[in-house]
Design goal:
The complex is a heterotrimer. Chain A is built from nine helices and no strands. Chain A is mainly α. Chain A has one domain. In chain A, helix 3 packs across helix 4, helix 3 crosses helix 9 and helix 6 packs antiparallel against helix 7. The relative contact order of chain A is 0.14. By secondary structure, chain B is mainly alpha-helical. Chain B has one domain. Chain B has three helices and no strands. Chain C has one domain. The radius of gyration of chain C is 19 Å and the shape is elongated. The chains are: A mainly alpha, B mainly alpha, C mainly alpha. Chains in contact: A-B, A-C. Chains A and B meet through helix 1, helix 7 and helix 9 of A and helix 1 and helix 3 of B.
């Protein structure tokens, strides 16, 4: 009874808060400019420049990728570093807890029908689904400049395929595991590749992350500069993909090594 | 202030799902409903035209739900997926 | 009113009715396995009908092939999910509720 009363009070309080916040948001939002308006300073100067010049200068039809990786590449570098930092902090917090020993593979293979889920149907179907996910992940990485996609989505998709393999208990369980230290090293190599792409133009006389002066082509014609922009964006996306993949796998392994549940 | 009918329906669904997560009785069921919240957010991003963000939300939503379920299942002691006050 | 539009409307309406039946079935059934059956089967059926409707509307160009690919992917992956849920419930000894009532009557 008391539990019911406190729940009803909680529900009533929640409804009052929702109505109050909603009314305040509607009132405040009424005199801010609407989102797609063409008169605001953000839309008339900066966005106009991006829309008219991005395709010509970077040869990528996806303006979001062009802005993220070429015009604002410095911000994306620190986003990647923050992701790596989150994996590092998770490892540091859970480092002292001792690992739980898992069942060896031989025992699991003898009574394969006693796992919580597993069995023949799961084995066969996961062998169909995982290659499709992997191929789609790499497709999204390389087509980040033409259609949707980019580095973050591709890294998450490739890590999704590994996650599927790790969670399903099957005959292959325990083989092909990536240790958490290895995953962290992979993530740091991704971020390192990003920074190398930034430092390379400095050998040729440019600023940090200035793709027009990458030391690959040899002429200063306009089309060659556009190709250098495309190459720079691709290298950045590969770095981000590897880093995101390492982060997701590291956090997963850190938690899964130290727990014990039959699922 | 122009707002489409589709956007309004999706926003009302979002509020309903958020209320169901907070006032629900089982912790594990609330975690699965969080995945539904991520789905409605993805539909909203598609309706306003941000396609890249919608794609990212779809992928990260599933991974984040798996993390939550693993974290809840590894709490020992008092069974964490029972009813909560 | 071309025949293509009429056929599309018929198939899409049938698909929406199937999805609505799935949603209502999840709410109204009392047993866990009945709910799972309603959700899994009716959603696959609704997917087939909606995809056929969209394919009739689009024709045989590149968009039609993409629709067919999406349908194939979801049609393979969705019953896998239903199978996982049913198998976990079976392994954890979740009783069918008709069995529970039968055992109660046997004890009386």
């Amino acid at each position: 009874m008391k539990e019911n009363k406190s729940r009803k009070k909680l529900a009533a309080g929640l409804i009052i808060v929702i109505i109050a916040v909603g009314t305040a948001a509607v009132k405040i939002g009424a005199f801010l400019p609407t989102i797609g308006d063409a008169d605001t300073p953000a839309n008339s100067y900066v966005a106009n420049y991006y829309i008219t010049n991005a395709v010509k200068e970077t040869h990528s039809y996806n303006i979001v990728t062009a802005v993220l990786a070429d015009y604002r590449g410095f911000d994306t570098l620190f986003e990647t570093c923050v992701l790596f930092l989150s994996a590092l902090v998770t490892m540091m917090v859970l480092f002292g807890k001792e690992k739980v020993p898992k069942m060896p593979v031989k025992n699991l293979a003898e009574d394969k029908y006693s796992a919580a889920f597993g069995g023949d149907i799961m084995d066969a179907s996961f062998r169909i689904v995982v290659p499709i996910i992997l191929i789609y992940g790499i497709y999204v990485l390389f087509h980040g400049e033409i259609s949707l996609g980019g580095g973050f989505q591709a890294g998450a998709l490739i890590a999704c395929a590994y996650l599927l393999d790790r969670i399903i208990p099957s005959i292959r369980m325990g083989r092909g595991k990536i240790k958490e230290e290895t995953a962290l090293i992979i993530a740091s190599m991704g971020a390192f590749f990003y920074v190398i792409t930034g430092i390379l133009p400095m050998f040729n006389g440019g600023n940090f992350l200035e793709f027009a002066k990458l030391p690959f082509g040899s002429s200063l014609a306009a089309e060659s500069i556009v190709k250098l922009h495309t190459a720079g964006i691709l290298m950045i996306e590969v770095g981000v993909t590897v880093c995101v993949m390492g982060v997701i796998i590291a956090i997963l392994e850190v938690v899964l090594e130290r727990t014990d549940f039959d699922e | 202030m122009p707002i489409l009918l589709l956007e309004g329906l999706l926003l009302i669904a979002m509020i309903a799902i958020a209320a169901a997560i907070i006032l629900g009785k089982k912790l594990l069921a609330a975690t699965v409903i969080y995945c539904g919240f991520s789905l409605i957010a993805m539909l909203l991003y598609t309706v306003v035209g941000a396609a890249d963000v919608a794609f990212t939300e779809a992928v990260i939503g599933t991974i984040s739900t798996v993390y939550f379920i693993i974290a809840i299942k590894s709490i020992k002691g008092k069974r964490a997926d029972d009813e909560r006050k | 009113m071309e025949i293509r539009n009429i056929l599309t409307v018929i198939f899409m309406t049938a698909g929406f009715i199937s999805f609505a039946a799935s949603a209502i079935g999840v709410f109204r059934m009392k047993d866990f396995y009945c709910r799972l059956h309603a959700a899994g089967v009716c959603e696959s059926a609704g997917l087939v009908l909606c995809s056929i409707g969209l394919l009739i509307y689009e024709g045989f160009n590149i968009t039609g092939i993409k629709i067919f690919m999406v349908f194939l992917a979801v049609f393979i992956a969705s019953p896998i999910g239903t199978h996982i849920i049913a198998r976990v419930a079976y392994k954890r000894h979740l009783q069918v509720s008709a069995e529970k009532e039968l055992r109660k009557e046997e004890r009386k």
